[in-house]
């Protein structure tokens, strides 16, 4: 089922999310719904708060990037990278910081350069509640960091300089008022 994506200004996007247990009600259905919602909006990551749930769960599927000529060097790593992250904890961020132009399904029509470390060490459970500790680099690390921020109550716009924040303030206000055109279901703050 495709769920409405919460827009900037919704309080759930600012919540530090809580952990869940393996007996979380209808977890498999929720994971399927997150992937379906993300794919229908042409996203490559989606976190539970973006559909109104303050739980530590997010999904990523960067396989569409494998077809992009900008990622030809890492196409093999990207093509099957579809994962579920439950109760994730980033243990370490390392390497050089690199800028990349990010966007977010909850903040449509706003894209800005964000600096993030190139490699992460992360502990998480998969959809079968099997625990993993993995290292990821490149676009995989970036997408995971972006989604991880969501379960911490952080948005990519929080990483912007004061000047950039001032420049996007008007756009963010319009989004929170529902004054934005998107091709996917959205729910705006009341």
UniProtKB/TrEMBL annotation:
Keyword Metal-binding (UniProt): yes
Alphabetical GO biological process terms: translation
EC number: 3.5.1.88
Keyword terms, alphabetized: Hydrolase, Iron, Metal-binding, Protein biosynthesis
Catalytically driven reaction(s): N-terminal N-formyl-L-methionyl-[peptide] + H2O = N-terminal L-methionyl-[peptide] + formate
GO molecular function: metal ion binding; peptide deformylase activity
Location of the active site: 147
Name of the protein this chain belongs to: Peptide deformylase
Family designation: Belongs to the polypeptide deformylase family.
Pfam families xref list: Pep_deformylase
Binding site for Fe cation: 104, 146, 150
Cofactor note: Binds 1 Fe(2+) ion.
Cofactor(s) listed in the protein's UniProt record: Fe(2+)
Job of this protein: Removes the formyl group from the N-terminal Met of newly synthesized proteins. Requires at least a dipeptide for an efficient rate of reaction. N-terminal L-methionine is a prerequisite for activity but the enzyme has broad specificity at other positions.
InterPro entries: Peptide_deformylase, Peptide_deformylase_sf
């Amino acid at each position: 089922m495709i769920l409405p994506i919460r827009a900037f200004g919704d309080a759930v996007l600012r919540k530090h999310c809580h952990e869940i247990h393996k007996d979380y009600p209808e977890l498999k259905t929720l994971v399927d719904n997150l992937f379906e919602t993300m794919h229908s909006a042409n996203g490559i990551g989606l976190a539970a708060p973006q559909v109104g749930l303050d739980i530590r769960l997010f999904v990523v599927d960067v396989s569409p990037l494998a077809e992009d000529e900008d990622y030809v060097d890492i196409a093999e790593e990207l093509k099957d990278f579809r994962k579920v992250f439950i109760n994730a904890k980033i243990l370490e961020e390392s390497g050089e910081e690199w800028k990349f132009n990010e966007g977010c399904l909850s903040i449509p029509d706003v894209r800005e350069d964000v600096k993030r470390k190139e490699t992460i060490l992360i502990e998480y459970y998969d959809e079968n509640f099997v625990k993993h500790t993995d290292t990821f680099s490149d676009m995989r690390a970036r997408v995971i960091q972006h989604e991880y921020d969501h379960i911490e109550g952080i948005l990519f716009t929080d990483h912007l300089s004061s000047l950039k924040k001032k420049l996007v303030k008007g756009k963010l206000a319009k989004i929170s008022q529902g004054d934005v055109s998107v091709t996917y279901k959205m729910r705006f703050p009341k």
